[in-house]
UniProtKB/TrEMBL annotation:
Keyword Signal: no
Keyword annotations: ATP-binding, Cell membrane, Hydrolase, Membrane, Nucleotide-binding, Transport
An annotated GO cellular component: plasma membrane
Designated gene of the protein: lptB_1
Pfam family, one: BCA_ABC_TP_C
GO molecular function: ATP binding; ATP hydrolysis activity
Protein name in the entry: Lipopolysaccharide export system ATP-binding protein LptB
Length: 260
């Protein structure tokens, strides 16, 4: 499909999060538009992963709210987020290392299961048709990510770059409308980064998936993002298109180390 950036579908309003006396996020507001690639950047400890954890309900902020497609949430939960079409990958790969690629991707279909436990146990009627449908979707993801050759390989035996691709595949198996990517290219070599960039752009372009990503590689961020929000010490110091952010004195200061 041809990508066209639409209206705001995710709006974060004055979000503040603290752990004990430590403030992780302070009065953060920004929005995400349908079909865009929205990057969150900042030095280590800036609050980027905390922000993703707020969006998908792992953390519940003390102040602020999340507005998702017009619905207001002061308390998001991982279940509500998944039901609303939000899926994510993790900075530290959270796959089942002893299971093969197909079975790991099938775990991404859990929220789509409609048949009851008895039907699933006997693989009967609706359960059988449903599982065949889920497997067909997983096979589509495998083809899309070009991992047919490792489909039966236990994930723990795969090199790091391919494990990151499988992690992306499990998130895609949910058929999300909003995909949260937590440092999808961390630890990759140049070739692996190029592949991951291509897949992210293709997910965004072909599926129309809205993407919110954290990434440290500034060349990648500036190349593939539509808009960038910049955090430093849990506060927002910049927000705009890549050119505007690149020229922002506060962002330059944070990244050149003047504030660190």
């Amino acid at each position: 499909m041809s990508r066209k950036i639409g209206e705001v579908i995710l709006d974060l309003k004055k979000v503040s999060l603290s752990f004990g006396g430590v403030k992780a996020l302070t009065d953060i507001s920004f929005d995400v538009r349908e079909h865009e690639i929205r990057a969150i950047i900042g030095p280590n400890g800036a609050g980027k992963s905390s922000m993703l954890n707020v969006i998908n309900g792992v953390y519940r902020p003390q102040e602020g709210e999340i507005i998702l497609r017009g619905q207001h949430f002061t308390k998001m939960s991982p279940y509500k987020a998944a039901r609303a079409g939000i899926s994510r990958t993790f900075q530290n790969i959270a796959l089942f290392k002893g299971m093969n690629v197909i079975d790991n991707l099938m775990t991404g279909r859990n929220m789509k299961i409609r048949s009851n436990l008895i039907q699933q146990a006997f693989w009967w009627g609706p359960a059988r048709r449903e599982e065949l449908g889920h497997r067909a979707k997983v096979e589509e993801v495998i083809d899309f990510l070009e991992i047919q050759h490792i489909r039966k390989t236990p994930v723990g035996r795969l090199p790091y770059g391919l494990q990151k691709r499988v992690d992306l595949g499990r998130a895609l198996a949910m058929e999300p409308s909003i995909l949260l990517l937590d440092e999808p290219m961390a630890g990759m070599n140049v070739e692996e980064k190029q592949d991951m960039c291509r897949f992210i752009l293709d997910v965004n372009d072909q599926f129309g998936t809205t993407i919110v990503l954290i990434e440290h590689d500034m060349a990648v961020v500036m190349d593939i993002s539509d808009r960038v929000v910049v955090l430093d010490y849990g506060k927002k110091i910049g927000d705009g298109d890549p050119d505007a952010v690149r020229a922002n004195p506060d962002v330059i200061s944070a990244y050149l180390g003047a504030s660190h």
